[in-house]
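Standup notes
- DV: blocked on the single-chain target, sequence here:
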Amino acid sequence: MTTASLLKLRMASHERTVHYGLQVLATARQGRHGDLRDEGVAMTLGEVISRLEKEPPGKIVPLGFAYPHSYRGYYDQLAFEPKINVTIAEMLAAAQSAIGETYCGYKGGNYTMDQHSEVWLAEYGCCGDSIGSVLLDYMCGRSDWC
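- DV (later): unblocked, structure below
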């Protein structure tokens, strides 16, 4: 086999690898809404409530959340504003208050939240981060995942 033939085979193999890699990356990054977050990372409102119910209600956490509202990124999803020095009970109350509540989307429309609504940490009108189990554990002062 000539050097040119080997080079062609190597380039074709490289192109297939790059194409496949881009497809895998695009698929991995493609969430339910076509965004760049990892599917399955965001917790639902019901999961957050269930998790918070396992914590001591009087425990004060340095960074938590309060003030539920429609998330700026996806109006049908729920966001909480960050709050410092908040108790687990206050976070739980904020989460429970959002069940069945209807919020106005940032640019209009009404969205009712339920236990299946995905949750985010974001100021009103801003995009933020999904609340996943690692972030919620961190907020609750748990580090057993380290």
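- Follow-up: The first helix runs from residue 3 to 29.
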